[in-house]
Amino acid sequence: MSVWVTGGNGFIGRHLIRQLAREGESVYGVGHGAIDETDRRKLGLRDWINGEIITPNLDGLVQRGGAPSAIFHLAGGSSVARSIEQPYEDFSRTVAATASLLEWLRHSVPGCRLIVASSAAVYGAHHAGAISEQDNAQPMSPYGHHKLIMEHLCRSYAVSFGIRATIVRLFSVYGPLLRKQLLWDLCLRLREGQRELVLGGTGNETRDWIDVRDVVRLLAELARADGAPLKVLNGGSGVPTKVAEIARLVTKAWGGNISVRFSGVVRAGDPFSLVADAGQLASIPFSWRIPVQDGIAQYVSWFKGQAH
Questions:
Q1: The pLDDT of residue 306
Q2: How much is the pTM?
Q3: Does a cis peptide bond (omega within 30 degrees of 0) precede residue 240?
């Protein structure tokens, strides 16, 4: 049987397809963006449909590769800022697409395992210290609200129709191919020749930074794990790293005499701390292999390489 990746043309999706193909899976995908034959072969992707998560496209994948044994659902909004600018589009990409997928599963492949990529944004900005899966979800953005609605839909279909879903609330995912957010912005500014970087916030904000190559190992492992019809897990290491330390690691890896300072201006709604309680993952068991200092250095190396 095949495995599918929705949103497979995105940052995490492309890494996941490679990981699954290396493990010997027959991987098919659907989502936005064209993937040409050369790229598809490099990824290890058997076939790809460029389009929405709707019944005709899902039926089309069955015709091409058979019914899936597992679906990795990565399709959805991917930017807090964009969700604020275009909330209905974010809703459609996240909530409507998930509802469509769940309804298709209910009728077509109810026994299929579903691995759903959610976000730590569902927790909001009100937590201090490690956040457990049982802590209150208080999202601050349309992006976070839509991810939480997506989770509720999965819960509904698990309870009412027996759909087997594992929801992973991913924390601060970074790594090669990431072309947005803090690391990308820092590297762009350094490539432009800036040697004094002024960043927002205080620098003491902490995040749970996880390398995408570890993330896709986790997702693949969860598809093999036997468990309850519905499971919600934190996708985080439990290791806090300050933003100031991330900036230091980036500038160190870049090289040269570079100074970094922080404006002290904090963006409304930004959490001071967003770090996972990783206890449930440890019990699987799962271990994170790439320390943040190594992952950041490798990201900078990738950025410099792709720039040429």
A1: 84
A2: 0.96
A3: no
Measured between alpha carbons, how far is residue 246 from residues 121, 207, 255, 271, 297 in Å?
20, 10, 14, 17, 10
Kind plus residue range of the DSSP H or E element containing 143? helix 142-161
Looking at the DSSP bridge assignments, the partners of residue 45 are: 27
CA triplet 276, 281, 287: central angle to 5 degrees?
100
- What pLDDT digit, counting tens, does each position of 233-272 carry? 999 999 999 999 999 999 999 999 999 999 998 877 788 9
Distance, in Å, from the CA atom of 250 to the CA atom of 300, rounded to the nearest integer, reads 7
Q: What is the predicted pLDDT for the residue at 110?
A: 95
45: left (phi over 0), alpha (psi -120 to 50) or beta: beta
pLDDT, residue 288, reads: 96
Nearest CA to 103 out of 54, 138, 39 is that of 54
The separation between the first and the last C-alpha atoms of the chain, rounded to the nearest angstrom, is 40
